[in-house]
Amino acid sequence: MSGERWSALYFSDCFVPDHNVLLGPGGFKKQISGFNIERIGNASRSLALGRYSFNQAKEYAKTRMQFSRKIAEFQGIQWKFAEMATKLEAAQLLLYKAATNADGGLPSPYETTMAKYICNETGFYVANEALQIMGASGYSQDNLVEYCLRRTRGWMIAGGSIEILKNRIAEEVLEMRFDQRPLTK
Q: How many domains does one find in the chain?
């Protein structure tokens, strides 16, 4: 959907000298602590594309005529904009909180997880609503709104899927660790 090309890499009988190993034993846990910085970037991109889509749809709604009226005059369209604007502002506040509270070091896993979750959901929601408001114009590849929809959807997977983010938030809220792996006998 994103237009990116992926290829598999296979390494058979490949020797990697110790000095070229990036993550040794326990290295993943160390590396994942920096992952929260990536989540702030992911959240920012989703929110930015949501805002772009919102602005495109707003201009479209203020000029597109239907039944001798601008479509912005229809209550159903107005409600869409009210919902989109509110969700964008709420997501922005959680993103600011996660970024601002990280000024003394690495960002909080809980705050960045919440920010990524809401910004991903909001970016996709707003891009989808903007595309709906714009109809065929929004769906066309001649307009960047369809691109925004595809990208925001991908960011709901990259950097931790929405489901994984919810698991992480629940662990923090309930102050419990939940292993998602099958129990071993």
A: 1
